[in-house]
Amino acid sequence: MELFYRSTRSDKERVTASQAILQGLAADGGLFVPEEIPKLELPMVQLKGMSYQETAYEVMRLFFTDFTGEELVHCIESAYDSKFDTEAIAPLRKAGDACYLELFHGATIAFKDMALSILPYLMLTAARKNHVTNEIVILTATSGDTGKAALAGFAKVEGTKIIVFYPKDGVSPIQEKQMVTQEGDNTLVVGIHGNFDQAQTGVKQMFSDQELAAQMQARGCQFSSANSINIGRLVPQIAYYVYAYGKMCAAGELELGDPMNVVVPTGNFGNILAAYYAKAMGVPIGKLICASNENKVLYDFFRSGSYDRNREFILTSSPSMDILISSNLERLIYQIDGRDAEVTRAFMESLSVNGSYTITDGMRDQLADFYGNYASEAETAAAIKNLYEQTGYVIDPHTAVASCVYEKYRKDTGDDTKTVIVSTASPYKFTRSVMTAIDPAYDAREDFELVDELCRLSGVPVPRAIEEIRTAPVRHKTVCEVEEMPGVVRNFLGL
Ligand SMILES: *Cc1c(COP(=O)(O)O)cnc(C)c1O
Q1: Mean pLDDT across the chain, nearest whole number?
Q2: What spacing in Å lies between the alpha carbon of 495 and ligand 1's midpoint?
Q3: Less packed terminus of the chain by CB within 10 Å, N or C?
Q4: In the chain, how many domains are there?
């Protein structure tokens, strides 16, 4: 049966999966959502023995119904290959009271690789399917990890260009070095004097700029998005929750059918929304535990029913979660307001005009599966240090936020359901924060000295992604003001 996609903000558009992937964002500014969430069609017992690629296929074929089986296999096999440094692709690691689902074994050592290694293949297949001959221009705002993962996926891919905007002072030194050393003539990396929310808003505005769209069309190109607003990113992320459940059963951590809680370090709400979709597909997930850093807008939302971005934007040691406008929450709002696009549009209008909105009690009742909490900077550092001292396992600051919130959840509720903590980045990506959490004296050392020290401490080999940037030359030096973003894009595209 064919599954169609609709915008969260109006009933006018109804598109196929491939069209939704190509477009990225709906023309009315809404996000594409499937008309229904399909149920997994295979018995749970079979999951236990399936490879990552097989699991991904089972999930994607249900969502991307206008792709042929062959096309999907090609996309999956091209994405989840030796770019990953383990055949498991997303291995589980037990440490302390929880299991960590390591999603950082791809080319850029953060979980964005899980979706962005496949998105270029999905997009090119979608273009062919829809007889699009325009060049696809990927326009992306990044809080640090999406940028590099999208660059790695799209660099030198024929028929595409990619432009990445990142907050100049809002990413880790290694994140920045990874991006500005990117090769490929079809790439452009630009730092902005502003924060991630401003970068994301600037990008969304360009998407709905009709004049710009017309100029692009005249030049034979069109925008698409590599941000998690693209359904082509969200769906591949569902796969690792399905996979994790199978592997937890295979490892004897769970009996088939037992509930499994997940803790997700959250920023734009994409990763945890994928877990919510996995649950809706039939995976026995119990609680969806949403972990925030000091930008705790989601914690406040789950507690009060009010989403309010009117607050100070805080730069933390988990920069990929420094976000006050969690775009994907719109998809959850749409789901719990009875899939009423008018209502969703009104909430988003209020968010845009007033910076806030409050959901109804009836909507709040549907959030019972979620639990939100947050970790302060001191708590995050302590979580890294404690886990290392107790188990020898070193986690990055984003994962540490989740680990800390997991402890708070257990204290709050007494719930000791088996839990998977989603580990979203390699500690090597945030070496300085990680090492100084373990011992503040490390702060005096150089970045790459710390890399070697982390290797000694953790026994984990230095990833290829880090070795590559030790000596790589800086290729991207453009920095601009927020208002100058459209000009930079026009200039790069020769408009
Ligand atoms: C992007 C990112 C997150 C946040 O994920 P969302 O899908 O935006 O909620 C958390 N940790 C790391 C390391 C990331 O790169």
Answers
A1: 96
A2: 33
A3: N
A4: 1
